Amino acid sequence: MFIPFHDANTLKHIKVQWVTLALIALNVAVWLFISLESEQAAQATTVGLGYIPAIAFGQAQLAEGLDIVPEPLTYLSYAFVHSGFWHLASNMVFLWVFGDNVEDAVGHMRFLLFYLLCAAAGALCHGLLTTMPEAPLVGASGAISGVVAAYVMLHPRVKVWVLVFFRVPLPLPAFVPLLLWIGQQFFMLAVAPDGDVSWGAHVGGILAGAVLILVLRRRGVPLFDREIVTPRAVRNEAGVGTAVAAGADGRIERLPWGRGRG
Which stretches in the chain have pLDDT values below 50? Predict the structure, then answer.
């Protein structure tokens, strides 16, 4: 439906989104490693790191030598394996655009916890809903879905540039494309649960992200953009605790911080 590529949303609590960058780097590194393997070895790695509901629920067992990580860890490891370049790229673009502000809202370590819990929730929901329990689930979509849900709860009014139908660039309030995207995941789960895309993992991640942002966000971080906060650098130039705006008659007015008028 759309691809996000930029949001006008500065960081307010952290200088650099270290965890977001590390997650992107790790996903890319795993993809490169698997893509350089032989086809047979790549399939074995995908099976060994992927989440397989039949294995997780004790209905089947992996062949000897394929159990790369202990089975409980596949609730997380699957989220770092992707089936191809475009699968990886689409997930990492969403993480790049939206992950930094969610990390900013919760802090570095809590964002890592948030991301992993959303991934695990996506795997669990997929396992409960899938009709193909022996097929391995791979991809960061469950975790990314949680990031999207958190972002729209934190910053629904922030302008996000998106490519609509991969062609038309438009600046839209975040709630417009993101709520449409979230609605699409629930709709597709209802009408087309059996397919190459695990809509169940997406929905599980969305639900987890919406709940976790309520309890993991920093104290004082508001929901739903109650106020557009002026970046610290701009605020300092205008004067501590104030924002500056030009009145209709050309005079300079000092307004309550963060409430400048255009």
Answer: 227-231, 233-262
Q: Which domains does the chain have, with CATH numbers?
A: 3-231 (1.20.1540.10)
- Amino acid of residue 16: V
Q: What is the DSSP string of 114-144?
A: HHHHHHHHHHHHHHHH-S-TTSPB-SSHHHH
What letter does residue 63 receive in the DSSP assignment? P
State the pairing for strand pair 242-246/252-256: antiparallel
Q: Dihedral (C-alpha) 132, 114, 148, 5: value to the nearest 10 degrees?
A: -110
The residues pairing with 254 across neighbouring beta strands, listed in sequence order, are: 244
Tens digits of residue pLDDT in 70-104: 999 999 999 999 999 999 999 999 999 999 999 99
Angle, CA 40 vertex, CA 36 and CA 41 arms, to 5°: 55
CA-based nearest residue to 51, from 144, 128, 165: 128
Entry pTM = 0.84
- How far apart, in whole angstroms, are the C-alpha atoms of residue 210 and residue 185? 14
Q: Which two tokens stand for residue 163?
A: 């490519």
Q: How far is CA 213 from the centre of its chain?
A: 12
* Amino acid, res. 29: A
CA–CA gap between residue 174 and residue 6 (Å, rounded)? 11
The Cα–Cα gap between 6 and 256 comes to 29
